[in-house]
Amino acid sequence: MWQRVAAVSSSFLLCTGILIQANAWSPSFEVIGRSRRTIMQTTTDSEEKSTETKTGTWNPLSLAVLKLGFTEPAWTSPYNYKNDEGSYVCANCKTPLFPSSSKYDSGSGWPSFWKTIDNDKVALERSWDGRIEATCNNCGGHLGHVFPDGPQRGKLDANDLATVPETDPDIGYKAQGNDAGGENKLQFSRMPRYCINGAALQFEEK
After folding, report:
1. Which of 10, 98, 113, 140 counts the most CB atoms within 10 A of its CB?
2. What is the pTM of this model?
3. Number of CB atoms found within 10 A of residue 172's CB
4. Which of these, 129, 123, 118, lies nearest to 71 by C-alpha position?
5. Cα–Cα distance between 149 and 25 in angstroms, integer?
6. What backbone phi and psi angles, to 5 degrees, belong to 104?
């Protein structure tokens, strides 16, 4: 009988010791749990910030244009009809791209510009189909394409012409019958036409 009492007593002391040890360690477990939660929360915050940095818009059409190179249907962008003073920025990274002074009605159905706002804001690259693709030089978002049939120089304001960025392409058509050089070239040659998806832009008032 005494042997059974001794065995029961030993089991009770062992269980008591385990409980005491567990209680002694529980704060550490709690600290570890808090640390893990903190790390997980920090990681989540970092991922959210990283996503916000990479994607400045969640508009489905804008993402399809900027990230996948889609073309919005003609005549659907409100910017095609906008005439307010200001600047047009990239819908993704908010980099200024075009001044409102260079916007004009090209009749194409898409917002059109004949110059960029500053040097190295818009990158140009020849596409597989021969067209010249225009992208935001900061984030690489697809904007549209550039064509050589922009407005004639002679119909544009001289002050605006004087501020054309050096990195803008010299691809404008010359008027029929124009010679290869001299003043006539500057007066009658056409500027580029930046044919841009409105979904790739945002407007900032002056």
Report:
1. 113
2. 0.68
3. 22
4. 129
5. 77
6. -150, 165
**What tokens were used for 79?**
């910017």
- DSSP for residue 152: B
Respond yes or no: is residue 139 known to be catalytic: no
Listed range (44-53, 93-102, 186-195) with the worst mean pLDDT = 44-53
> Which one from 93, 136, 139, 195 is the annotated catalytic residue?
195
Ordered alpha helix ranges (H), the chain: 2-54, 60-68, 158-161, 183-188
Dihedral angle sign, alpha carbons of residues 196, 199, 200, 204: positive
Whether 191 contacts 98, CB under 8 Å: no
How far, in Å, CA of 120 to CA of 153, rounded?
22
Q: Is the CB of residue 196 less than 8 Å from the CB of residue 134?
A: yes
CB count within 10 Å of CB 193 equals 24
pLDDT band at 56 (very low <50, low <70, confident <90, very high): confident
CA 62 to chain centre: 9
Determine the average pLDDT of the residues in 165-194.
69
